[in-house]
Amino acid sequence: MADHIPLHPVPRSTQRRTAYYTSVPAAQRHNSRYQVEDESSHLDEMPLMMSEEGFENDESDYHTLPRARVSHRKRGLEWFICGGWKFLCASCCDWLINICRRKKELKARTVWLGCPEKCEEKYPRNAIKNQKYNFFTFIPGVLYEQFKFFLNLYFLVVSCSQFVPALKIGYLYTYWAPLGFVLAVTMVREAVDEFRRYQRDKEMNSQLYSKLTIRGSCFIRTDQLDGETDWKLKVAVSCTQRLPALGDLFSISAYVYAQKPQLDIHSFEGTFTREDSDPTIHESLSIENTLWASTVVASGTVIGVVIYTGKETRSVMNTSNPKNKVGLLDLELNQLTKALFLALVALSIVMVTLQGFVGPWYRNLFRFLLLFSYIIPISLRVNLDMGKAAYGWMIMKDDNIPGTVVRTSTIPEELGRLVYLLTDKTGTLTQNEMIFKRLHLGTVSYGTDTMDEIQNHIVNSYSQMHSQSSGNSTSSTPSRKVQSSAPKVRKTVSSRIHEAVKAIALCHNVTPVYESHAGVTGETEYAEVDQNFSDENRTYQASSPDEVALVQWTESVGLTLVNRDLTSMQLKSPGGQILTYYILQVFPFTSESKRMGIIVRDESTGEITFYMKGADVAMSTIVQYNDWLEEECGNMAREGLRTLVVAKKSLTEEQYQDFENRYNQAKLSIHDRALKVAAVVESLEREMELLCLTGVEDQLQADVRPTLEMLRNAGIKIWMLTGDKLETATCIAKSSHLVSRTQDIHIFRPVISRGEAHLELNAFRRKHDCALVISGDSLEVCLKYYEHEFVELACQCPAVVCCRCSPTQKAHIVKLLQHHTGKRTCAIGDGGNDVSMIQAADCGIGIEGKEGKQASLAADFSITQFKHIGRLLMVHGRNSYKRSAALGQFVMHRGLIISTMQAVFSSVFYFASIPLYQGFLMVGYATIYTMFPVFSLVLDQDVKPEMALLYPELYKDLTKGRSLSFKTFLIWVLISIYQGGILMYGALLLFESEFVHVVAISFTALIFTELLMVALTIRTWHWLMVVAEFFSLGCYVASLAFLNEYFGIGRVSFGAFLDVAFITTVTFLWKVSAITVVSCLPLYILKYLKRKFSPPSYSKLTS
Question: Where along the chain is Mg(2+) bound (predicted)?
Fold first, then answer.
């Protein structure tokens, strides 16, 4: 299993604030690796300063810093109006939910084998549920999600008001039909999404384990849990392996005691107890004995006892509940809708005031509110939702990004507003396929083009050994004594290569697995010693892909690992001879030690050798003095290679027996077991012989470097969050050009206390333009005490790498960026461990890869390769945002212009609250007469896709939100007021003698104006836009013959009718044309002048 990552629950924000003024215990300070002097020992009690000048000031300045950031709190009515009411409502809802869904306290448990009746506690159903709603909450839940938007809530109130006779100003369908359509579309979409979630849950819950082990160990795949694609070796409880038959498991009296459910997927504590044996057997259980849910038994067969079920499993505990994502554009439009509502109320009050508050003025006020309700158009939601569906269809039909799937159709505009991209490493930036690239022996270096020389040396050395062993029958013991007493001589290159390759072939945790020829189930089995070790059906499995790459390389040069079990391993020499080595001890890799070791005994000679490999920072103090290791490690790291230092030490029988006694004694100690075991192992790690330095390359995904460079040029800051080791993450950050060659990298030292975090943050603060690399443990400490300062510093970095991150920590980092910066975040990953991060981000992208489909199914957008994210953001993100911004503002303009005309009309008729246009005219205006041309704006584009990809700097403008802002909104408001006034006053002025035809005249001019305004807004014409324009115009002309009852002022009051003879005259046509030209021509002139003297940035590229 991967190394242990201690996880701690994240403190609440209130705890973080108080932490500024609290200090860590004295004992913790004394144990600190930073031994600070007396005068600076009070650092632990001081908040971190954020400037050089402040850091030089005296102690009193520190205590003023946190207060300086505390903003003035609003109180009383001001607080209630400015969002307090929303806070109160949310608090009440949370309180009710907590009352209804009180979480049961998690406890440790005892599980008896074959005796479920002995379990006293009730545990959760062993089922996963990712659905948002159930049968009873679906309709209330969907309605709540819709009516929490001001726009929909407003129209619900307006529509309900039409049931009151005194307030009715038109037909019910003019209000309820659009609202019903919006709700119906939303409910159908949510129902489809919910059904898909139900099907995925059903498929997941139908997968059960039903396997049995024979040899006491098996392999599992954990890619959906921790993102690592390599197989992990798991070991069974040893006392159950001695049972004669499987059925005996249920006849013994035994139980498992396990710790309470935890978030940490890298640790487990428990005991197995068998009571019916004499004496009672107690066996400790660790992470090696566990199979977590969401892992796959990849090799071997297993029978286990279930400890955690349902929502108490590690995978579910590390997955956050999916949230309903709302795009930034929708929130901005919601704010503009509120501004329109204030304008609506103000206009209605003005009309009632000018009326003189005569009669039942409050009823007139409400009628004016209804008359001007088209200021806030219900068609805004319809158009935007249909636009989002169109953008999703365009993304999925793009041949340049095949296989892309849009799973959340409500946020395509988010792709054009991103500032932070948080990416996984394994399987996302890299293919997780390691290739051996370099072997360095100190005086000579071998690369991929000189590996044949190594192969020749290996073949020659083993052929000489074979001939010597066949010609010499001397016992191994005397030869070992002679060898140990012989003086040191300079080894030949051939012998050094032989020693290095043998060390690499032996020092690892790799197990060869062979496909079973007899079985038809497709399962793999271990090869027996007497089997034919054929190369065709052998695969290597280990917890690290680096180790597999090393063993595959030794096979390519002639020394092949053919078999391994818990006590021995066999190598095959180039000549076909089987060499057996007994495994005496294995010291696995940990993130603390940064190295792994193994002690083996050669069967043929009896020699005992201690081999070790690890990171250069750990091994440099262990190996004998040399003058090349540090320099060559730096050279390989600059090439993007992952380096490992390999060393050995020969042990006599006496030395090993002494070590084994001390090692076993340390393992039995109760107090400080880990420290004592580490001390015993470290006693061996002295003056080891340096054998070689290896360089392995983790192959990057296709076009990762140019894609990351494009994103960087677009102003997107990239953070890499990975569960991998610090050295590996740093290496990939360099090789992928996440960190450019000219930038420095600051590796944040491990910190465990507030004082250490304080000093390390101040050291980092003095660095400029350097990337940050930090581990999950250190990050947790920094966020506990210095959340604001850390995020502020990290956001200034060109790139950030967080290694050893748990799934929960990844999601927490996303939420921190959202909270502290207010910018839009995107998370991309390919494994089950990335799901929480993907769901927490404003925009989640999943990659379908080796680690399965869990990330892509949970994401908002699913792609097949990382390089596709460039086109997804630069082209589709840009187009979606630009088009929706234009569409939303134009729909608002369409409502504002008709409301302006209504206001002019009412003021002319002594502020009477009667409608200008009735019934089908209002519905037709928002639909068949103008809908198609307005909606055709979803086909508009300002720059060609090739240009957007070539100049990613254009993306920076999108993140500033200039396409939809209060400035652009006010411009459209002014245009609407101007055009509405011209159309209404023009109609009244030119047609004073034919006053009864004013409705037909003004409405005709209005339709012409809207069609011309669409043409004015379009930047790139599409043939469908032309069709939409002429189709709408044709529909209006054709409908004139059928709508004569609507073209009259007040219809009932004036009894007006459509004079077909009149509208076909030249007088009618030129006067309508004159009004239309006056309303549109000035805007065309202004647009031309603006483009000439203040052109947008993209116009310079398209010219």
Answer: 424, 426, 830, 834
CA-CA distance, 66 to 883, in Å (whole number)?
A: 43
Q: Work out the burial of residue 1093: count CB atoms within 10 Å of its CB; fewer than 13 is exposed, 13-18 middle, 19 or more buried.
A: exposed
pLDDT value of residue 222: 59
Instruction: Identify the bridge partners of residue 83 per DSSP, sorted by sequence position.
Output: none
Mean pLDDT of 19-33: 36
What number is the average pLDDT over the span 901-925?
Answer: 80
DSSP output for 543-565:
S-HHHHHHHHHHHHTT-EEEEE-
Residue-wise pLDDT for 806-852, tens only, equals 888 899 999 999 999 999 999 999 877 788 899 999 999 999 866 56
CA–CA separation, 923 vs 1097, rounded Å?
Answer: 39
Q: How far apart are CA 417 and CA 414, in angstroms?
A: 5
Distance CA 409, CA 394 (A): 12
CA 919 – CA 914 distance, rounded (Å): 13
Q: Between vectors from CA 232 to CA 857 and to CA 530, what angle results, nearest 5°?
A: 130
* Residue in the structure block whose two tokens are 């005691």: 257
Residue 47's pLDDT is 46
Active-site residue 672, yes or no?
Answer: no
Q: What is the pTM of this model?
A: 0.71
Band of residue 526 on the pLDDT scale cut at 50, 70, 90: very low
Which of 866, 817, 869, 863 minimizes the C-alpha distance to 842?
Answer: 817
843-847 sheet: strands from edge to edge: 405-406, 861-863, 843-847, 824-829, 418-423, 717-721, 799-803, 770-775, 744-747
Annotated binding site for Mg(2+): 424, 426, 830, 834
Which residue among 330, 424, 546, 860 is the active-site one? 424
Give CA angle at 923 (921, 928), nearest 5°: 90
Burial degree of 136 (CB within 10 A; 0-12, 13-18, 19+): exposed
Strand blocks (E) in 516-620 = 524-525, 538-541, 560-564, 568-572, 578-587, 595-602, 608-614
Name the DSSP class of 992.
S
In the structure, what pLDDT confidence band is assigned to residue 139 with cuts at 50, 70 and 90? confident
- Share the mean pLDDT of the chain: 79
Please state the residue numbers annotated as binding site for ATP: 424-426, 547, 589, 613, 642, 722-724, 804, 810, 833-834
pLDDT at 210 over 70: no
Handedness of CA 360, 363, 365, 371 (dihedral sign): negative
Q: Which two tokens stand for residue 229?
A: 């694609």
Q: Is 810 left (phi over 0), alpha (psi -120 to 50) or beta?
A: alpha
pLDDT of residue 82: 58
Residue 1092, Cβ density class (10 Å: 0-12 exposed, 13-18 middle, ≥19 buried): exposed
> Helices 361-371 and 878-908 sit at what angle, rounded to 10 degrees?
140
* CA distance linking residue 583 with residue 565, whole number of Å: 9
Examine the pLDDT at 66 and tell me if it is beyond 50: no
Provide mean pLDDT across the span 612-624.
Answer: 89
Question: Does position 1050 have pLDDT exceeding 60, yes or no?
Answer: no
Which tokens sit at 99?
A: 């009352």
Q: Which residues are bridge partners to 799 per DSSP?
A: 718
pLDDT score for 230: 56
Contact 146, 297 (CB under 8 A): no
> What amino acid occupies position 990?
L
Mean pLDDT, range 996-1001, rounded to an integer: 75
Q: Are strands 578-587 and 595-602 parallel, antiparallel or unpaired?
A: antiparallel
Binding region? 424-426, 547, 589, 613, 642, 722-724, 804, 810, 830, 833-834
Rounded Cα distance between 771 and 747, Å, is: 8
Check residue 1060 and give its pLDDT: 62
Q: Which residue has the tokens 């329109």?
A: 340
The whole-angstrom distance between residue 722's C-alpha and the CA centroid of its chain comes to 11
